[in-house]
Design brief:
The structure is a homotrimer. The first copy, chain A, is built from twelve helices and 19 strands. By secondary structure, the first copy, chain A, is of the alpha/beta class. The first copy, chain A, has three domains: 12-65 and 164-354, 3-Layer(aba) Sandwich (Aminopeptidase); 68-161, Domain of unknown function DUF2172 (Glucose Oxidase, domain 1, 3-Layer(bba) Sandwich), CATH 3.50.30; 357-433, Orthogonal Bundle (Arc Repressor Mutant, subunit A), CATH 1.10.10. In chain A, strands 1-10-12-11-13-16-14-15 form an eight-stranded mixed beta sheet, sandwiched between helices. In chain A, helix 7 crosses helix 9 (335-354), helix 10 (385-397) crosses helix 11 and helix 10 packs across helix 12. The radius of gyration of chain A is 25 Å and the shape is elongated. Chains A and B meet through helix 6 of A and helix 10 of B.
Chain lengths: 434, 434, 434
């Protein structure tokens, strides 16, 4: 599963960041043209991406698809006719899913519909009101406290009408039906770590995997958060038993270290792989136990669904101050961090492909490695000690019950080295895949 | 299981201490009128308490009920006829179960029957000789070393005759036969932490539980230590499988922190409940592994009995210097400590009653909490974060295999909060008891 | 299993060291007269030792017995005819298994066949080339760098011819066929910790056990490392299921603390026993997880063999600088260390013999210990607290499912004390062996 010929991932972080720059201005929400326009851009990279539309009012488990929300413009003008809040400056200024309104209000009445963040007085907070009809504006706390007494003209040119919920899905069929889910959400307006880092990295990952013949099947989901995952699970509820592993991709562009939030079971296959690869490749990372709050792992790990799906992030949602504010912007996420996240997701894919069970063909005592050129004949190690130790561990543990991943974990050796040595041993007819 | 109407536990520590003050002067032993008089006082609080009498000589497993011991008076007089040791000053002065004697002795002969405690020279030690016929006096070490050479008159007006062993038992029948044992001992003379704290607190606990309709049945045992527990187990040996949990109550009045000594299994139901409640309610406590020495848990956890019974104490026996001395008196135990012990036992009872298994009625994905008023519609938490987290954990884990206690342990949230939220979710028809 | 009458192990370390001194000069290898001469000396202590000869060329699993190697003399002379390297000074000077040679060479050509150790410039390294035909000399680094340009005469008077591989085996039959393996290797030339400490200590251990009637059978193996263990396993492959425990004895004479390398399973019987005895008897020791490199545990724990065999050493191979050099000599190993290693092996043997399952004959509550003189009747402990605690633990845990070893581990009491108390309880008919 190494790189294809003439291929390299150099500069991929910069490419992902450029793609993100294109998606950044779109005003996304859980329904509406923002999602559609974003998926159209993703489809340019993934021509086989299927775009699904689920009509408003459809019942999905305990929920109902809400009316579709779209917005053209919004502002607050003072009595001089000057726009003091302007949707065109930042789509975060509008309470997401605001009902249409056009009226005049005095400051005290207006303030009931204004949201700010006292702790970070320069940042615009991101607020939503999907299921409770309301309207409002978000603005920096400094701007809020400097608004003078006045009569203001308020206008939100939005619509909330029967339409549909939109999501994107791409299945890359492998040799087997065993499926891996990579899920992300596409419903936040102009914010980068949460959430454009997820869809952009998964777009590039899907593009890479689609070039390869794979053992497993890979399904990529680009959904509105919560309601989108619920919708997809509701539609596909009879097909979930094919899913052997999965990850929710989010918060992958900030400069922090990796965080892995375990699946509900806590010891599922994806947990073992991801934690081992973090150990192999990172000097510092965090493991979080499963908790039933966060992103779409809440749905994937609900008691009636209970899929083996974790979430690999950089800094976890809630834990960076820029979370859900205008400061989560194109400067906050870096090409370098996006690249390291892409590479870790790619390595997880590689490991899913490469991890197999082998049987030692000479299980009684050690085979004679020297006569096969696999052991130095006078003292000292041939390559590194790790090479010889890796050979010894694979031979010792390959009884058909331990996968290469199990051997890498037990021996505390790098999975990539174990895989490389297994290939050598297989070539030497000392082990065979089962 | 909250408090009954118009009811409060304010001042209950003071009431328990007053009750203890009444029991304090009685000269108890493993048989005789001291036990009977103590049980009579307990029966004033618990009219349904049954008083059992088991004849001397009865065989109970490997043991035989000993002759009944009673004592009227005891003293040591010097040659001037002055009482230098007087039973009326402290019933600890007499080696418990001393045979009757009336004789004259020189100091060196007398000294073979005197017991003192060099380390704490002002305290009278508590000594017994139940199964080896002997007589003796206990006195402070300072008194012992100041006894002049003299001829002393020794008198112990005791009797050791065929009679019976006495114990008290109260069964509070609940909806089910599943039984919880609260066991304590009533055989120590004037000492408070070990042991009057146990019987006084259990008396008040039984009184409270007797006012309520309960799911489980509760059996309270007031026994002489060791031989009493052996006797009760011998008589009831065919009825032990109803017992689902239990605690030995002792050393509950000193000012130290709680100590929980686990049942033999170490992971039984009572262990899980008690440790969780200590975590919820105490900032500092000790967990002791089961050891086959201590109090009546020795019998309850013997290999042929093996009941799920632990012991919840403040400072463990042996571990406070006043243990088995005259310094374990009414000043050493405090109303405040007795009250906190009573409350912890009460909470254990509450949790035993409240802990149930629920099933999430919308197990596929999350139910929509917002439309039921259980989720804030614009950002931030409705009550506290803990409230929302509690709701999420209950929904996520209620697959019928996790009790509320399991959920509280896994989520690291307070059991009381989990119970309160489960009630709310049940009222909203989101979960149902199974 | 205490010492036999009139017997003591005083001075046994000195005796073992003297035996080692006799074995030290022999030039051993994996085949040849060095092994035969060493086994002859061992047989003087163990008359029933069987000496096996397996012909060169025999197939043993994936290996073939190599030609037999013998050596009479070897030297390097300078142009003045002075011996600058002389096999008679140290048999380490010859690359073990060197092919015969007699030629003249200039220094630069000679150097391709010289091996030294830069890090310890005064020590001669030990090097082998068993399966790759080669010749060479080992010398101190100081000597190497001081060799002047010259023409040297090189002579190795060795032979590499069809013959056999030799190993020694002693079976001490016990009451049952259940077998314990003590395995060591006898293939290193003049080095003491690795490896003469192993064969000398096992010789003394076998001698002691042979004097006794035992419950288990004990098999002692004195083999050439790797190829010898492979040969023995190949010959005995159908008889391995009798083996219940075993140890590889090596590196037992250096002044360091004990190291125990676990069997592959990691929780096998020998692991439990050895770790418990180290805890009972040592203030400081190391536990190493199983790794598939090291000594003959590699073969015993290969996936098709998988025997419960660990390795008890002092300082582990590789971890002392003298390892595989001339500095691993008779001064490096001490009688004191050999004695403590012998005693630990002896205690392991004793525990294997003494560990039994008992049943408490009074499982319902405690038996009355006082009437049997097993409990002090007035307060305080009779002997030590440990004695009483040991009695209590045995009675509490003897339900037929816990061995004395299990009880010693659980109670954190010394196995010897537990065994002593079990004997007392058995004598008192309170427990019986099952």
């Amino acid at each position: 599963m190494a790189l294809l010929e003439n291929e390299s991932f150099d500069g991929i972080g910069k490419q992902i960041h450029e793609f993100m720059t294109n998606l950044y201005p779109i005003c996304r929400s859980i329904t509406g043209n923002g999602v559609r326009d974003s998926l159209k851009q993703i489809k340019q990279y993934l021509p086989n991406l299927e775009i699904h539309e689920v009509p408003s009012g459809s019942e999905v488990f305990d929920w109902k698809i809400p009316n579709e929300w779209n917005i053209k413009d919004a502002f607050v003008k003072n009595s001089l006719g000057e726009k003091v809040i302007d949707f065109n400056n930042s789509n975060l200024h509008v309470l997401n899913y605001s009902t249409p309104i056009h009226t005049k209000l005095h400051l005290d009445e207006l303030k009931k519909h204004l949201f700010s963040l006292e702790k970070y007085p320069d940042w615009i907070p991101y607020k939503t009101s999907y299921y409770d009809q309301n309207w409002g504006f978000c603005l920096s706390h400094n701007q809020l406290i400097n608004l003078p007494e006045d009569e203001y003209e308020v206008s939100i040119d939005s619509s909330l009408e029967s339409g549909s919920l939109t999501y994107g899905e791409l299945l890359l069929k492998g040799e087997t039906d065993d499926e891996v889910i990579f899920s992300t959400y596409v419903c936040h307006p102009s914010m980068c770590n949460d959430n454009l880092s997820g869809p952009t990295i998964l777009t590039y990952l899907a593009k890479e995997i689609s070039k390869r013949k794979t053992k497993l099947s890979y399904r990529f989901l680009f959904l509105p958060e919560t309601i989108g995952a619920i919708t997809w699970l509701s539609i596909n509820k009879n097909n979930l038993n094919k899913i052997k592993a999965g990850l929710v991709a989010t918060c992958l562009g900030d400069p922090g270290n990796f965080t892995y939030k375990k699946s509900k079971l806590g010891i599922s296959y994806i947990d073992k792989i991801t934690i081992k690869l973090l150990e192999d490749n990172s000097s510092d990372f965090k493991i979080e136990e499963f908790k039933p709050f966060g992103s779409d792992e809440r749905q994937y790990c609900s008691p009636g669904i209970n899929l083996p799906i974790g979430s690999l992030m950089k800094t976890m949602y809630y834990k960076f101050p820029e979370y859900h504010t205008s400061a989560d912007n194109l400067e906050f996420v870096t090409p370098k961090s996006l690249e390291s996240s892409f590479l870790m997701y790619y390595k997880i894919y590689e490991t899913l492909e490469d991890n197999d069970y082998y049987e030692n063909l000479n299980p009684m005592c050690e085979p004679q490695l020297g006569k096969r050129g696999l052991r130095n004949n006078i003292g000292g190690p041939k390559e590194t000690n790790n090479f010889q130790e890796s050979i010894d561990w694979i031979l010792n543990m390959s009884d058909g019950k331990n996968s290469l991943l199990d051997i890498a974990i037990k021996s505390n050796l790098n999975f990539e080295l174990i895989k490389k040595c297994a290939d050598i041993l297989e070539k030497n007819q000392l082990i065979k895949k089962i």
